[in-house]
Specification:
The protein is of the alpha+beta class and 252 residues long. Helices cover 45% and strands 12% of the residues. The strands form 2 sheets. A 6-stranded mixed beta sheet has the order 1-8-7-6-5-2. A two-stranded antiparallel sheet has the order 3-4. Strand 7 and strand 8 form a beta hairpin.
Length: 252
């Protein structure tokens, strides 16, 4: 079995066949399809430590949202447990963070919380550069939130975890100093397909990709996203993806 990261990065034949318009759609979203809800944050930590700091920030966010009273050491100890597929976290389980890195991580946590508008339903997606987009409304209601949702996997794809889900919206947090990339959308599409195949409850219909470090977010319905990148309905897209997972041969 392979991880969702490997499926998103390596299996070029799947994505070229299934999502031929993905690169164009991502460029359009980066140009005019994102909402900036905060200014980019000032970075206090070294660039080669951003990944570690981002993960610490997300763990702080999770502990806060779960209303857990944990010390920084206890939060640090969870890093490898909630990201079990990532070998780096096995080595980083007892990593020491500087004061500046802890401040950065705490800010990432706060900006993640500010960026998730619980209870929102997203408008239909129109991939047209420079089209005015209404900002996502503020949080309206506290729906049931599932942190680190677990997906069983299927075929060649092993079990995997998302970041969080509220209502029918899957949230994926990307806190790098960069624009959105095709691989970000491939990853959430994998989660959608797997959730559909296992009849995940509550059913996922929308996605919110959030970058707390850069202060932008984009909310889309999966049906519109799949139509824009492939010209297929959600049912057709999922069926082709399922067949690939089940029947894949090592040809990429």
């Amino acid at each position: 079995m392979i991880s969702e990261r490997a499926l998103a990065e390596v299996h070029a034949s799947l994505w070229s066949e299934l999502a031929p318009n993905l690169s164009r759609v991502v460029r359009s979203i980066n140009l005019s399809g994102r909402e900036r809800y905060l200014r980019p944050m000032e970075r206090r930590s070294a660039s080669d430590r951003i990944y570690l700091v981002n993960e610490l920030g997300y763990q702080i966010f999770l502990a806060s949202e779960r209303k857990e009273r944990l010390s920084l050491g206890e939060i640090n100890a969870r890093l490898s447990k909630e990201r079990t597929e990532d070998a780096d976290w096995v080595k980083a389980q007892n990593i020491v963070f500087s004061d500046d890195e802890i401040i950065d991580a705490q800010e990432i946590a706060a900006r993640t919380r500010d960026g998730i508008p619980y209870g929102v339903r997203y408008p239909r997606l129109h991939i047209i550069p420079d089209t005015p987009r209404k900002p996502l409304p503020s949080r309206q209601s506290e729906e049931a939130i599932m942190f680190v949702p677990y997906f069983k996997g299927a075929g060649i794809l092993g079990p995997c975890n998302g970041d969080c889900q509220y209502g029918n919206t899957l949230v994926e947090v990307k806190a790098g100093e960069r624009d959105l990339r095709s691989i970000d959308f491939r990853q959430v599409l994998i989660y959608y397909v797997i959730s559909y195949l296992e009849n995940f409850t509550p059913r996922i219909e929308n996605v919110l990709i959030l970058n707390p470090r850069q202060g932008y977010r984009v909310g889309l319905s999966f049906a519109d996203l799949m139509s824009a990148i492939s010209g297929l309905s959600a049912v057709e897209f999922t069926a082709i993806f399922r067949d690939y997972l089940v029947n894949w041969k090592a040809c990429d």
